[in-house]
Design goal:
single chain, alpha+beta, five-stranded antiparallel sheet, 4 helices, 5 strands, 26% helix, globular
């Protein structure tokens, strides 16, 4: 299992988890849900107490990934399998992302 904090405008909004079977879960943090002024991070994830589940990386996050030659370069220099979308997301979306959302790997202790 791998996890990442999802930051919205540099505030901790939720957690994206890749389960051992390759499926994904997104859940908003309790503090984010408690603040009525905090929005959903995108239209695909309206603010809700429920967990969002998918067998594949959610389209919102998939669309944050580099493509073509940029993807090849990132994968080569970071030794990431080209089909490891979550690994690619963790590498590329922590600092350099378009929009308000960033993805930060949660390191296991």
């Amino acid at each position: 299992m791998r996890q990442a904090k999802i930051l919205y405008k540099d505030e901790d909004a939720g957690v994206l988890t890749q389960n051992d079977d390759g499926s994904f879960v997104f859940r908003y943090n309790a503090a984010w849900m408690a603040d009525s002024k905090k929005p959903g991070i995108c239209l695909g994830f309206p603010k809700s107490e429920k967990e969002y589940y998918s067998k594949f990386l959610f389209p919102f996050f998939y669309n944050m990934l580099p493509e073509g030659s940029n993807k090849q370069i990132v994968c080569k220099y970071n030794r990431i399998d080209k089909n490891d979308y979550f690994g690619l997301l963790l590498t590329t979306a922590k600092y350099d992302s378009i929009g308000a959302v960033r993805v930060i790997k949660i390191e296991k202790i």
